[in-house]
């Protein structure tokens, strides 16, 4: 349900009946529950505008809100704030409805979009490393949330599978094939890349061959393409195994790599030339953007074709954007990419708008994220300064979580430890990331992410198991029982549960998964306060059943909510 809107509509009516149709009501969730559930902050500015005494105006509006089926009380505070408390019976009815709905009372959007989410998108020349984590999990969470809200989502894994380094790799693979060692060499992509690079740097002739292979590859030479394909397949298999371990929704069908746009690059450049948007500059094709000045105050240059005819990352993204609009019919293009590419996307979108390829009814967004830092405040690396393979990082998370689980609960079987360790370890890594404002850098710290206290996955997963344990102890009970809300913490918990849809919409609109994460954390802490303050199983029959209902919806909301972040739950841990 849209709780905020429901309350806002009542307040707007009260404003209107006092002649304040055009004044924003400024309705906010109350910071302190002792005073109310919501707070109206719009009276003071409205009073100023209509030249009235703010406190008197507030009294009048509060009076208009009396005898309301949604708002139980409206109290004027300070110079003209109004604190609202909602009717407990109204909350109870909506909770009941949410429990009867497998979608937990969350409405499908009235305006479904076709969202194209570009995420993960590693360069295939190397194994996935920690730098690919954020895009992969933020994108996957947005995919889940938008889908849940009823949008059509098309995931696009824009892998870097084209460009000069592939000439080098293919040339090296060819050489290895001659020696009959190709399959063997490809099992270690990192070493293969390093060896190829070494050959390239040390041997002029090899470097020339590599450059020839780039041309052959882009020209579609079948034998070169076949070698390239071997390389891409192996590399993608590796990526897919990382996705599996992470529990991502991404599948091989979502891969539309840079190579896919090869034959659309020239026409794209030609069209920009014909439109006069791109110009010839020393043989290269360039778009000069007055909107973006370089440090010398000159218009930024967006190169779309090199002097030698070669194309770039930028040219591919232009062709790709057109494909996403014209062929995939996307009207919300989302690029979950490192913040360091902000300028690239700003320029890309500007050019696409100028060219008329990106119409006004299509939104294009760079969903930027910051860098994962080590405890030393520098980008996260191994002790020796190497980049950390994502696979290694995830395996370490599982090992650490397993030993933690084993030490907390020595009676578990190996199999149980293994399963719980996996869910907790992967959950911890994901949650530590998703619970932070994505645009900031954050410090990757094993101890804090694996802690059972504070805003962490283990804390939330544990909170969920507590809910489950209530039901194990409860035995048979009436799942159709009425909810009646009397205790203040019941009221608070009810209110929080009914904010789920508001939070999801806010998360979907802004693409900030930490809004959802923080909500779940708040819900879990609130539940534990409720659990302490309001006995469940020992209460009288009706109260017991009502509290079990609240507990049930809390469990379902935690489970669904965590699932929307891509995090699994356990019945016991
Ligand atoms: N492969 C690129 C990188 O690793 C990210 C691609 C993002 N998507 C895009 N359409 N440019 O930096």
Q: Mind explaining what this structure looks like?
A:
Among the domains are: 3-86, 2-Layer Sandwich (Gyrase A, domain 2); 165-254, no CATH class; 258-369, Rossmann fold (3-Layer(aba) Sandwich); 458-564, Orthogonal Bundle (Isoleucyl-tRNA Synthetase, Domain 1), CATH 1.10.730. The chain is 53% helix and 12% strand. It has 21 helices and 13 strands. The strands form 4 sheets. Strands 1-2-4-3 form a 4-stranded antiparallel β-sheet. A 4-stranded parallel β-sheet has the order 6-5-10-11, sandwiched between helices. The protein is globular and about 85 Å long. It binds arginine. Residues 118, 121-123, 158, 160, 317, 320, 335, 337 line the site of arginine. Arginine binds at residues 118, 121-123, 158, 160, 317, 320, 335, 337.
Tally of helical segments: 21
Q: Calculate the mean pLDDT score and round it.
A: 95
Associated small molecules: arginine
Q: Classify the beta-strand content into a percent band.
A: 5-15%
CATH architecture call of the domain at 258-369:
3-Layer(aba) Sandwich
Q: Which structural class should the secondary elements be placed in?
A: alpha/beta
Neighbour order of strands in the largest sheet: 1-2-4-3
Sketch the major β-sheet: 4 strands, antiparallel
Radius of gyration: 28 Å
């Amino acid at each position: 349900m849209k709780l905020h809107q429901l309350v806002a509509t009542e307040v707007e009516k009260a404003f209107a009946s006092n002649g304040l149709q055009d004044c924003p009501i400024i309705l906010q969730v109350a910071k302190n529950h002792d005073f109310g559930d919501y707070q109206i902050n719009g009276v003071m500015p409205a009073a100023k505008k209509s030249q009235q005494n703010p406190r008197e105006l507030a009294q009048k509006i509060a009076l208009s809100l009396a005898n309301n089926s949604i708002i139980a009380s409206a109290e004027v505070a300070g110079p003209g704030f109004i604190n609202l408390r909602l009717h407990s019976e109204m909350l109870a009815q909506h909770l009941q409805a949410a429990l009867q709905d497998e979608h937990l009372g969350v409405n499908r959007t009235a305006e479904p979009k076709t969202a194209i989410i570009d995420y993960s998108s590693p360069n295939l020349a190397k194994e996935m490393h920690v730098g690919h984590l954020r895009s992969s999990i933020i994108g996957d969470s947005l995919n889940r949330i938008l889908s849940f809200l009823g949008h059509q989502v098309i995931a696009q894994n824009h892998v870097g599978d084209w460009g000069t380094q592939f000439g080098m790799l293919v040339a090296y693979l060819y050489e290895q094939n001659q020696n009959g060692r190709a399959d063997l060499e490809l099992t270690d992509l990192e070493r293969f890349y390093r060896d190829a690079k070494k050959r390239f740097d040390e041997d002029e002739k090899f470097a020339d061959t590599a450059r020839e292979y780039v041309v052959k590859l882009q020209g579609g030479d079948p034998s070169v393409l076949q070698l390239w394909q071997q390389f891409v397949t192996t590399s993608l298999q590796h990526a897919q195994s990382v996705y599996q371990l992470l529990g991502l929704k991404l599948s091989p069908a979502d891969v539309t790599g840079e190579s896919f746009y090869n034959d659309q690059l020239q026409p794209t450049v030609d069209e920009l030339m014909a439109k006069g948007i791109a110009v010839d500059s020393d043989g290269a094709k360039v778009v000069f953007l007055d909107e973006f000045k370089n440090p010398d105050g000159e218009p930024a240059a967006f190169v779309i074709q090199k002097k030698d005819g070669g194309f770039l990352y930028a040219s591919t993204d232009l062709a790709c954007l057109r494909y996403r609009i014209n062929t995939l019919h996307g009207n919300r293009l989302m690029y979950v990419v490192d913040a360091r590419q902000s300028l690239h996307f700003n320029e890309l979108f500007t050019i696409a708008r100028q060219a008329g390829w990106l119409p006004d009814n299509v939104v294009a967004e760079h969903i930027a994220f910051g860098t994962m830092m080590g405890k030393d405040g520098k980008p996260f690396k191994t002790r020796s300064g190497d980049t950390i393979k994502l696979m290694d990082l995830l395996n370490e998370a599982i090992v650490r979580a397993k030993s933690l689980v084993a030490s907390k609960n020595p009676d578990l079987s190996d199999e149980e430890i293994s399963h719980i360790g996996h869910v907790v370890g992967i959950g911890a890594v994901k949650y530590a990331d998703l619970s932070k404002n994505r645009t900031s850098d954050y410090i990757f710290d094993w101890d804090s992410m694996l802690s059972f206290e504070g805003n962490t996955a283990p804390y939330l997963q544990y909170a969920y198991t507590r809910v489950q344990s209530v039901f194990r102890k409860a035995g048979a009970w009436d799942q159709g029982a009425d909810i009646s809300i009397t205790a203040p913490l019941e009221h608070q918990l009810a209110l929080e549960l009914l904010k789920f849809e508001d939070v999801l919409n806010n998360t979907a609109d802004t693409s900030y998964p930490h809004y959802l994460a923080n909500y779940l954390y708040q819900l879990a802490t609130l539940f534990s306060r409720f659990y302490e303050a309001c006995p469940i199983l020992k209460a009288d029959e009706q109260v017991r059943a009502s509290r079990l209902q609240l507990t049930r919806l809390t469990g379902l909301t935690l489970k669904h909510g965590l699932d929307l972040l891509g995090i699994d739950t356990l019945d016991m841990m």
